Amino acid sequence: MAQTAVVNVPKLNKTINVPTGLFINNEFVPSVDSQERIDAVNPATEEVICSIIAGSEKDIDVAVAAARHAFKTTWGKNITGWERSRLLNKLADLIERDAQELAELEALNNGKPIKIARDFDIGDSIQCLRYYAGWADKIAGQTLECDNTKKLAFTRHDPIGVCGQIIPWNYPINMWSWKVAPALAVGCTIVMKPSELTPLTALKLSELVVEAGFPPGVVNTVPSLGSVGGAALAAHPDVDKVAFTGSTVTGRKIMEAAAKSNLKKVSLELGGKSPHLVFESADLEQAASWAALGICYNTGQDCTAGSRVYVQDTVYDKFLAVLVDKVKALNVGDGLDDATGAGPVVSKGQYDRVWGYIESGKAEGARVLVGGEKRNSKGYYVDPTIFTNISADMKIVKEEASIFGPVLSVGKFKTEEEAVILANDTSYGLGAGLHSNDANQCMRVSSALEAGTVWVNQYNLLCNNVPFGGKKQSGIGRELGSYALEEYTSVKAIHWNFGEKLEWPL
């Protein structure tokens, strides 16, 4: 069976070759025992792009064994930081070289616009790889004083080992880089399980892993259903750490499986219900732009989507008028069109979920200010929808970002204290934003907001050197920055006695 599909893209007048096998030991191979296939669908047309192998639990076993062998022989502690850095930089160079084609494939499989995939997701991923390439030869421990006349101690930050990495469908390339870069920088090996909805770019990136020169088994890619491959990685006794980005419900299952197997280390970046506060002193034009970005970027399919905006009552009407104009200006269409600023949602299941929430908002009495009507055309399109007249008990206000679409609830507050209470009235704590030109207020409110990331006078922009992660039910652990290195290392303390003599018996 061929391990490559040729994808025709008439709109671009070209074809793209896509690997369709499992990537293990630097080769694309068939499944050990699975005859199942995963159809990759274009959400703009609802057509199947191609079909790839769906890995089984036994395939995960093979991939983990390959990763373990590489960790013990050609990677792990057997390679210098200089070499890890060189290979990561080479991989970044190759992704930069192929950025246009990768963006086209991302647009086909995910629906996001080519220019967004290329200039933002892929551009950021290249920077992420280069950032961690810079860390690869700087993994340092400490020397600790015990007794200068007899003993010293020092620490080593060892690579934790084989890592199972489970990434979501909303940022397929970006989340790949967030997981892969710090793990490889410290010397871990990887079994990657991309989302079954968007597996194509992870397979394409696997080709570049070989071209960059990484030894076989260092990075392995097993597309699979989450209930099969993801569950197998979480429960695998020879996986040392599992990293997951996705829903809180699945995160709980992964943590439970990790605990019941070998108590492997776990990092979880989960959902949110992120608040966005606009105070009366804010630049309302800018605040509306950032609020529009917060809910419309990536068609609202973002863990930190600012899905709850609360505006001070003195500027509420004025802000809403500006926000509506901003949202209406966004062109939602086929990601292969240059004029498109946002694409369809990723799948029929996601489309039905988002519309279910929109209908729920209407039924519970919220007022639709803009959007809220289905298109009569092909594609899983959801135009940005703004609700007002909301209350705290409505599903669109209280439930996790599983809405995961461009659906915004806008409420109002009178005082700063009320704004903080409204913002924190959630069991999630991934992101939060505030807009104010009162510096003291910015400090007070940013301190009071219960979230892993707080944006002041902007929203949803991240930097590779700044940590990202959640509080409460939004997860544990951190990605990005130096903090992510801690997720992939194990600290070993070494006590060195050079002068103390033990008298025995005691």
UniProtKB/TrEMBL annotation:
Keyword annotations: Oxidoreductase
Catalytic site: E269
Coiled coil: none
GO molecular function, one term: aldehyde dehydrogenase [NAD(P)+] activity
Pfam families xref list: Aldedh
Domain Aldehyde dehydrogenase as annotated: residue spans: 34-494
Secreted in keyword set: no
UniProt keyword Oxidoreductase present: yes
PANTHER family linked: ALDEHYDE DEHYDROGENASE-RELATED
Family recorded in the similarity comment: Belongs to the aldehyde dehydrogenase family.
Designated name of the protein: NAD-aldehyde dehydrogenase
Organism: Coprinellus micaceus (Glistening ink-cap mushroom)
Organism classification: Eukaryota, Fungi, Dikarya, Basidiomycota, Agaricomycotina
